[in-house]
Amino acid sequence: MKTDNQILKFILRTKLFVIIFFGSIMIFNYIVDPYGVLRSHQNRHRATGINNHFVKIRHILRNKDKYDSFVMGASTAAKIDVRKIKNGRYYSISYSLSVPYESLQDIKLLLKKGVKIKNIIMGLEDLSYKEDPLLHFKQYRRFPYTENIKKNTAYIFKNLFLIHDINYYIKTIVNKKYRKNGFEYSTVYDIENTGLVFAPGLDEYIEKDSVDYVKSEIFNKPRRLNRPQRIDKTIEEIKQICELAESENIHLVFYMSPIHHTTYMNINQKEFFLFKKKLADVTDYYDFSGLNSITTNNFYFYETSHFRFCVGDWIINKLFGSGSAPEDFGVLVNKNNIAKHLAVQKEQLLNAGYVFE
Asked: Which alpha helices (H) appear in the chain, and where do they start and end?
């Protein structure tokens, strides 16, 4: 009998320990919320980023009548201020390393769940045909929101009960800020309204200290993404997006994002040109890449990956003919002028010292 009581006590103590252990992890994860998916509406000020893909699609599906138009693309698309686009109720479905395959799945899911879509503006760049979207299913920060409720639930539970990267915990807890030339700032994620990411005070700092800012060392480091190209697959996915948009009477516009000259001069231009050429066979698009008065001026970038909001305003003006924009910034490309367009861009590159492989 005494042995039975000891066994019973051991079982109860073990259960209590398990409850306390996992309960503590759950409470800690909920409070810290390293990937911003547990209480994203409260995680406005962060320096570590959140899983924008998951929380934005979830937010739209919880507010199906709030938006009818979307800007889609990688994180650079978050610098297009959707509040300034007048032909719809826009939301920015922009997230880290987004590629057309994911946008296609997002559009299908939104339509299936009853979201009525009038307009889509989709940003593309060189990473659009390099990043493998299937890798994102293995990454907490990029795991997509899908129509599979079990997968979504499992992802939430993993965020609640698993012990995540210790360094990520530390950064989230101490709210480590970003720095640019001595200026400190943190980012603000406006998930519940626009889907945009803001950096309060940063643009004011750039305007004030522009002379020193443009000389910053951050502009000497190109953004690199060393992945095998998947151009043909990406073009096929874009073709499916076009076909879906046509069948659903969605006004669809593509643009090629402006790329900082340091990064632009370090990417495989042979692949990039091939992508642009094949894209022109599928759809017209505005090309803001290349060496122009914007991409060659550090003043218009936050670093070598993201252009500033003022550049996003010019993109809007160019897409809709709604205002001024630099004359050499943005070319409407189609299958009739693509050869001439690429010839001009190739000459620019050669004059700047780029060596084609």
From this structure: 2-32, 52-62, 100-112, 149-161, 166-174, 202-208, 210-213, 231-247, 261-264, 269-282, 309-320, 338-351
Q: What are phi and psi of 85, to 5 degrees?
A: -95, 125
Neighbouring C-beta atoms of residue 135, cutoff 10 Å: 11
| Contact call for residues 287 and 333 (beta carbons, < 8 A) | yes
Residue with tokens 């057309």: 100
pLDDT at 43: 57
Q: Which residue has the tokens 């998916």?
A: 37
Residue 46 to residue 151: CA distance in whole angstroms: 26
pTM exceeding the 0.70 threshold for the entire prediction: yes
Say how many C-beta atoms besides its own lie within 10 A of residue 137's C-beta: 12
CA 74 to chain centroid: 3
Take residue 156 and report the two structure tokens written for it: 């939430």
The model's pLDDT over 141-177, given as tens digits with 9 standing for 90+, comes to: 999 999 999 999 999 999 999 988 888 888 777 766 7
61: nearest Cα among 144, 160, 158: 144
CB of 291 closer than 8 Å to CB of 281: no
Q: What is the pLDDT of residue 46?
A: 66
Number of H helices, E strands in the chain: 12, 11
Residues in the chain with pLDDT < 50?
none
Question: CA-CA-CA-CA torsion for 108, 229, 218, 328, nearest 10 degrees?
Answer: -80
Q: Closest Cα to residue 193, out of 20, 356, 44? A: 44
3-state class of 253 per DSSP? Answer: strand
The residue with tokens 């500033």 is: 308
Residue with tokens 């367009």: 341
Residue 84 is classified by DSSP as: G
pLDDT at 74: 97
Predicted confidence at residue 45, as pLDDT, reads 61
Both tokens of residue 173?
């807890």
3-state secondary structure of 189: strand
